[in-house]
């Protein structure tokens, strides 16, 4: 049996990687009975973010009205939840948030190569949250592309193609018309929608199988 899962997320979203780690745990329980096919869809939390990004703590203070103590506390909570799910968040007062349009364009292109799209997504999460790299930087992105075994020259062509920007924007508009306004969001077998990182993924899979 095959279960298709469309995941809408952004590389800047910590709950997106936490949610996927929880989904992975659920999928492992059914690995002998089900083949899971994952497809990642784009969602930019900060589409107007400048290329050099912003300091994360400053951004959270300005956009969410959080105090420094509240920000530090919330990041510690995320780091603890990350450890529980075998993912490392390395937050500090130097952490930054970046524009993810280029990353999403590469992810959309990588969707042509099956599981390589998930390999890229996970590599981007690690690069941003664990290694504190600038995932809007083309050199950083192309190094990741090389490390996961995709063609660097073809990836360069995607990054240099202005039409790929329009294509991502079009997909994002379609996603919002479908009612997805926050991430992460999961669509199982084109019919069962789960929003947020703490959905009962195991129960959803059981219901689809039965």
Descriptive report:
This protein has 210 residues and is of the alpha+beta class. It has a single domain (2-209), classed as Glutaredoxin (3-Layer(aba) Sandwich). It has helices at 14-28, 56-64, 68-84, 101-110, 116-130, 138-147, 152-159, 162-177, 201-209, and strands at residues 2-9, 35-42, 54-55, 96-97, 185-188, 192-195. The strands form 2 sheets. The chain has a 4-stranded mixed beta sheet with strand order 2-1-5-6, sandwiched between helices. It has a two-stranded antiparallel sheet with strand order 3-4. A hairpin with a 3-residue loop joins strand 5 and strand 6 (192-195). The protein is globular and about 50 Å long.
């Amino acid at each position: 049996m095959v279960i298709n899962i469309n995941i809408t997320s952004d590389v800047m979203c910590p709950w997106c990687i936490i949610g996927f780690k929880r989904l992975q745990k659920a999928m492992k329980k059914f690995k002998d009975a089900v083949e899971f096919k994952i497809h990642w869809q784009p969602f930019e939390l900060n589409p107007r973010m400048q290329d050099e990004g912003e300091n994360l703590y400053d951004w959270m203070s300005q956009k969410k009205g959080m105090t420094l103590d509240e920000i530090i506390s919330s990041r510690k909570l995320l780091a603890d939840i990350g450890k529980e799910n075998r993912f490392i968040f390395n937050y500090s007062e130097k952490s930054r948030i970046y524009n993810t349009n280029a990353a999403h364009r590469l992810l959309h292109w990588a969707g042509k190569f099956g599981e390589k799209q998930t390999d890229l997504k996970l590599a981007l999460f690690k690069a941003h949250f664990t290694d504190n790299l600038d995932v809007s930087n083309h050199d950083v992105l192309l190094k990741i592309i090389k490390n996961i075994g995709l063609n660097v020259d073809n990836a360069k062509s995607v990054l240099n193609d202005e039409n790929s920007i329009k294509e991502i924007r079009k997909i994002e508009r379609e996603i919002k018309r479908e009612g997805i306004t926050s991430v992460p969001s999961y669509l199982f077998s084109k019919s069962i929608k789960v929003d947020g990182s703490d959905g009962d993924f195991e129960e959803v899979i059981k219901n689809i199988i039965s």
